[in-house]
Amino acid sequence: MLKADVVIIGSEGAGALAAVEVARHGMKPLLLTKGPIGKSGATVTAMADFEVDSRSATEILGLKGDIRDSKEKFFEDTLISGGYLSNQKMLERHVNDIPEIAKEMIDKGMKVAEELDRAVGQTYPRSIMTTGPEFMRVLIKMCKEENVAVYEHFMATDLVKKDGKVIGVVGLDLSTGEFVEIGAKAVIMATGGGMQMYPYSTAPDELTGDGHAMAFRAGASFIDLEMIQFMGCTMMTPPAVEGQGFGYALCADINAMDCWLLNKFGTRFMADKDPVHKEHVTRDKLAVGMMSEVFEGRGSEHGGIYVSVSHLPNQIVDNFPQSKNVPYLSKDWEMFGFSYKQIMEEAKAGKALEMGVASHFFCGGIKVDENGYSGIPGFYAAGEVTGGTEGGNRISGNALTQVLVQGKASGAAAADFAKTVDFEEFPKDMTGYIERVNGPLNREGLSPFEMRKALQKVCWEKLCVVRTEESLKCVLDKVAEFKKQLPLVGCKAKNKIYNREWVDALQLESLITLTELVASSALQRKESRCVHYRHDFPVANYKEFTMNNILENKNGQIVTHFEPVVVTSIVPPKEA
Amino acid sequence: MDNKIIVKIKAFRFDPTVDKESYYDIFEVETQTSYSVYNALEYITENLDPTLAYYASCRIGACMGCLARVNGKVVRTCTTMLTEDITIEPVNKENVLKDLVMKCKPSPGEI
Fold it and tell me: What's the alpha-carbon Rg for chain A, to the nearest Å?
């Protein structure tokens, strides 16, 4: 049987650095990834900045920042942005560990802009600007230097436990169609968020919550999983650009134009909701503003809103891409390889753009401590699959800081643990694990593609930005139906090598589990805070809910409760 | 959307467990303004032939995972718009895992 001291599920930002750290601690890591390394996952799509306090960035990294900044101020800004829900022990590592990691990556040749940018929510400029592919190029180089082994086209499906301890991983080798067992002394989950719960997403296709589902089945707890960040003003049409952030750059980002967001009656609703900032509000307020219109029946044809630029003189629109205010937009309206020229010509002539929201980032996730430890011996997690760092909202750029800090911390902790234990024999009867993988291939039945779309539709309509007790209970009813149908899902395609329908069927089970976890969490938080908006409880309730929303697996049943937040230095206020 | 037309996609097929030699299948797909080759591949697997294998991830032109040869030229399928009949093949026909998906490193190999 294949074995590695520490198996890391997910090969990108968090996973890659975890593997490097495991190797540096003298243990043998193995990276598992559904895609090829560097060509999958969310890290490579990051736009991409990562945050270091401006003083360290100036003094340690030699970049142009503002030395009035401090780690303490960076800590405070992140805590406030996240509605005081962050685990402050994790946040201390977040601000303290990042300068050294950033220094190593820059020393290894990562190209970064000399001057720091300032993201909304940050008091000082802290954003080190690079690109997702450049970021991954350096992490892969570091993996190569440590001779890290990688198993590509591998979909992990379960953690294997014995006597309460995680002892390995099983899954499907997509290149052969074979069920594979991998023994490990410790496992690190680094599978990212589960943004594919929603039909519109800024995230890659494979982010289907496999890590959440595996962790839940293994008995891990979750924290603040209701906190899902949506990007506003993303494209709903045409098909090639669905979910893309072009509209955000155009209407809402720091240097955006004064576009009008209109409902189906032509009302400029953001001007009513926030007469001062209008369309130029923070991401959470923008998403809530837009989707409240949809929820209240004033949305566009496809369930979004309309954006008008035709009130602006042509020169202003034409000059927008010339200004270089949007670093990824060419002078000829091209962004990420797509030309928006024709769309903008039509918009100038009076055709409204249709824009919606797209799932963007999971602020909550697997509950871990500041070392990435889950509380289950041998099981660690890092990056977006975890919760606790960002609390209820994420400032732009903090994602990559989070994945680096947690990747390194969990790699070190998992390696240290691995030194104290031996490999264990897998159970003799692996039938349940094998059946989970092979079941859909061996059956004829319901289409996984159709089921996934049906699930995404439910999440879009009932578990999106605007939530109510009624909508969340409806999601849970639907989940119960989906769970009954799951054993009836089967593949028309019977080929064993790289069968997308088969993979989709396995991912569908992850998505159903994740949907149940998110809806169960969202039902408990009877307030609106940060990215979680309850139409039936529209304001923040600091007295009762400045608490972490914990979800546990008790014999397969979801049990929830609230826990006090972990405080080290800043006591949350009693009022918003 | 505007300008809906039907185009033919001639796709390279090869399953090493079944096929002695590669061959091509032709799929008819309705395209429209700003409809990508990636959109068409997704449509084919979900509606016409679920055995067609391709790899894609980010859909925003960043990851370079979806590279394929369209009419002989290596392109990102997600940023290549489908405006006419095309032939689509893997980047390197000598190193095919299945259809348009390339083999990766020996499993598990060093990076």
Answer: 23
The dihedral region occupied by A241, where left means phi > 0, alpha psi between -120 and 50, and beta the remainder, is alpha
Residue A396: per-residue pLDDT? 86
How much is the pLDDT for A34? 96
Size of interface A-B (CB pairs under 8 A): 151
Average pLDDT across chain B, whole number = 94
**Hey, is the C-beta of B61 within 8 angstroms of any chain A C-beta?**
yes
Q: What pLDDT score does B1 carry?
A: 46
| Residue A1: CB atoms within 10 Å | 10
**Straight-line distance from the first to the last Cα atom of chain B, in angstroms, rounded to the nearest whole number:** 44
CB distance from A454 to chain B under 8 Å? no
Q: Are strands A353-362 and A228-235 parallel, antiparallel or unpaired?
A: antiparallel
Question: B47-67 pLDDT, tens per residue?
Answer: 999 999 999 999 988 899 999
- Token pair of A246, please? 């072009």
- Residue A78: the pLDDT is 96
Cα B69 from Cα B24, distance rounded (Å): 14
B81 part of contact set with chain A, CB < 8 Å: yes
Residue B111 has pLDDT above 70, yes or no: no
Enumerate residue ranges in chain A where pLDDT < 50. none
CA atoms within 13 Å, Cβ hemisphere of B60: 27
Whole-number Å distance between alpha carbons of A94 and A403? 9
* CA count, 13 A, side-chain hemisphere, A497: 20
Rg (CA), chain B: 14
What DSSP state is assigned to residue A15? H
The secondary structure element, H or E, covering residue A362 is strand A353-362
Interface contact flag, B111 A206, Cβ < 8 Å: no
Q: How far is A174 from chain B (nearest CA, A)?
A: 10
Phi, psi of A315, deg, nearest 5:
-60, -35
Residue type, A216: F
User: Are residues B105 and A152, on separate chains, in Cβ contact within 8 Å?
Assistant: yes
Q: According to the model, what pLDDT value does residue A345 have?
A: 95
Picking from A2, A241, A493, the nearest residue to B34 by CB comes out as: A241
* A360, A230 Cβ separation under 8 angstroms: yes
Q: Quick check: pTM over 0.90?
A: yes
Nearest neighbour of A498 by CB, restricted to B46, B53, B110: B53
| Residue A134 pLDDT | 93
* Contact criterion met (CB < 8 Å) for B104 and A342: no
Which among A136, A135, A112, A115 has a CA at the least distance from the CA of A126? A115
Chain A residue with the nearest C-alpha to that of B76? A337
pLDDT number for residue B106: 72
- Which residues neighbour B105 within 8 Å (Cβ) at sequence distance 6 or greater? A150, A152, B111
What's at A55, amino acid-wise?
A: R
